[in-house]
Amino acid sequence: MPLLKNEAIIKELYTRVEGEDTLPDRGAVLVDLARWQADRSALIARGSEIGVRLTSAEAPEAIADDLSQLSLVALEFPAFTDGRAYSYARLLRERYGFQGEVRAVGDVLLEQLHFMHRSGFDCFEFSSDQPEEDWIIAQADMKVWYQPTGDKRPTATQLRRR
Amino acid sequence: MYEYDEFDADFVNQRALQFGRQVESRLSGKLSEDQFRPIRLMNGLYLQLHAYMLRVNVPYGCLNSAQMRKLAHIARVYDKDYGHLTTRQNMQFNWIKLSDMPEILLELASVEMHGIQSSGNCIRNITADEYAGVAAEEIEDPRVYCELLRQWSSLHPEFSFLPRKFKIAVTGSEKDRAVVKAHDIGLRLHRNENGEEGFEVFVGGGLGRTPFIGKSIRAFLPTEHVLSYCEAILRVYNQLGRRDNKYKARIKILVHEMGSEAFSELVEKEWAEIKQGALALPQAEIERVREFFAPPAYEALPEEDPDFEAQRKAEPGFALWARQQLAAHKRAGYAIVNVSCSPVGKPPGDISSAQMEGFADLADTYNFGEMRVTHNQNLVLTDVRKRDLFDLWKKLVALGLATANHGLIGDTICCPGLDYCALATARSIPLAEKISERFADPERQAEIGEIYLNMSGCINACGHHHVGNIGIVGVDKKNTELYQLMLGGSAEEDASLGKILGPGFDEDGIVDAVETVINIYIDMREPNEKFIETYRRLGPEPFKDRLYGAPA
Amino acid sequence: MQQVVIANRLTDGVVVFLGRNRCWVESLDDCPPTEQTDEASALLALGVKAEEEQEIVGPDLIEVASHQGTLVPVKMREAMRARGPSTRTDLGKQAGN
């Protein structure tokens, strides 16, 4: 599935390692929370980039102390109507100060991209024939924002004070 | 009232154009119905039994005459010449075409209106006391905070896919006209012992299939923290609210299952992290918004108006109306006028385009061009000079809006029911019509006195039946409508939930049963005792015994 | 048991029924019911396909019965959809608008 980051399609750098599957010899990997917790030292010892994938029932508090070891956190949307990961993304960025990639995976749709970006997601795995065009459409609609989030978009209140 | 600046105006216009794009995507098949449904709901568009239904937000019940005329225009051009006032202070239209929606939203945007978040699993229209700013006994005007909450909640990126819908109500009076204890968050503005403004915060109230009275989780929240505290509540709910069962997904279930103390601890912990952040309200911002709600140019008037007194003596119809429909204003010589939209034998809350336009004219002539919508599905003119009341009344009579039943049994709260609603299991409007006809005699209604009769056409309780002094809920039993009677609910500061009295009745039987209950009350009440007081003193037994027979 | 497929038209939400030649019609009178279970399933499948093709929304099989020479849905809810609101007989299909 295409990956979109910084308005462009990017190549997948991470090898997804499901459950207790064997780790590849080298290269970046994306593992589940349980695998990370079980094999933490071995994963760090590999010397490659590590990503952790959280289900929508796994809050990022579980990895808050590990974030300096991680370059990617992938947050799952089991259905686009399950909005827990919006809070998780904000917590990762605004509470825990995570600077790495926050990736939206699962039921990711054009119409939710803007909310996701505002919440702190910067990478999107979504099924589309034209992801770059979709990104432009999704960002073009709304240009006024009322909520201060970590995305640095100026809110209406901030602009009024200028 | 609040007026949009360029940011607010751009926001609703952009949102209208966005929905135009999304409708196109739906019609071309880029969006499936499953994908489109939450989008249209978040713009106020439902698909009901007969057609699409559009719910237009009336922010905390405040409308101006230009907006009312626009609603009339929409009813006439895009609907079937009428609208319906809802139990959350909004107006809805029952016969909307999807293909007209982009145009309708642009029309609404031109008068600072929209349907954003009038449905969907997000923060809904903020509701408030319909007498905000004018009630004689008011502590503080809640509209300032309603507007700040409205902006904060509009397309909140974190809270647009909550486990379930989320409703916030605000009051600033001792007397609760906003049903704050039946909301996901209820905010009661008051002053502490140092004279500072703050909120008592209730969470986890709600009606529906599992009704709860909200729990107070904070006695005093300084007003500058209202946004951060609500954000903390919503963040806890968004992460922990149940998503496995839509019937258990409201915050009331979370609060009930974990206990309000444990819930409150989580909220306080989250709030401690964000209270000093960007959501803290600078006093200047509060004052900026407060200016919009500055009192209009009142005249210095004597409290009593001699003409008004004389007109009441001369015209019994006017006297009856004035006795029932007026409320005390904080300014001398002014009155708050309740305008009933529940005439005898007609659907509660329905209002025609012509009535909307006529009423907008009255608001311009007598009320500084503004009006309110109430959760009782009525209208209010908040600032009428007593000397104008007689002229106003004559014009209301001509418009068919002079029914004198405020707070009486004919002034029912009633959901659309099976006549319109896709969720309903029984009709409710015909029952409201029959009950108002049974008690049509104004003298009889006045003799019965203050009573709230609420009815819903299903357990979802849009008609607030649990908090009616008399509540009726319709159910479908083997393809026949059956109505259950409950007594003892209250929506006010002494909020309580009614209890079902016994087996249900058919359509005619329930009207008789209501009359029986009223007759028992008349027989057994003490002097000046309201229905709810008599019920609380006697309990359900006398009513049960007469309706179902005394136990052997 | 006689059945028809009911739905709302996507563009305007108007209640429609699956009539002859796979056409969606606004009146139940123009809609031949089926008594065959297989045929009913096939009709519903046509409804599902019509939803995928952005013609209608929410196709559903409903039971109908003859009443004084015309077809009427058996369930109250569907009868309301086929007729219009009972409190406003000047509106909806019953009023021809």
Q: SSE layout and pairings?
A:
The complex is a heterotrimer of chains A (162), B (552) and C (97).
Chain A: E1 3-5, E2 8-10, E3 15-17, E4 29-32, H1 33-38, H2 40-45, E5 50-54, E6 72-77, H3 84-95, E7 101-106, H4 110-119, E8 123-125, H5 131-140, H6 156-161
Parallel strand pairs in A: 3-4, 4-5, 5-6, 6-7, 7-8
Antiparallel strand pairs in A: 1-2, 1-8
Helix pairs in contact in A: 4-5
Chain B: H1 6-28, H2 33-41, E1 45-47, E2 52-56, E3 62-64, H3 65-78, E4 82-85, E5 91-96, H4 101-109, E6 127-128, H5 143-153, E7 168-171, E8 185-191, E9 197-203, E10 215-222, H6 226-240, H7 251-258, H8 260-274, H9 283-292, H10 306-314, H11 316-325, E11 326-328, E12 334-339, E13 350-352, H12 353-366, E14 370-373, E15 379-385, H13 389-399, E16 413-414, H14 429-438, H15 442-448, E17 453-456, E18 470-477, E19 480-487, E20 499-500, H16 507-524, H17 531-538, H18 541-548
Parallel strand pairs in B: 6-7, 7-8, 16-17, 17-18
Antiparallel strand pairs in B: 1-2, 2-5, 3-14, 4-5, 4-13, 8-9, 9-10, 11-12, 12-15, 14-15, 18-19, 19-20
Helix pairs in contact in B: 1-2, 1-4, 3-12, 5-9, 6-8, 7-8, 10-11, 12-13, 14-16, 16-18
Chain C: E1 2-9, E2 15-18, E3 24-25, H1 37-52, E4 56-67, E5 70-73, H2 76-83
Antiparallel strand pairs in C: 1-2, 1-4, 2-3, 4-5
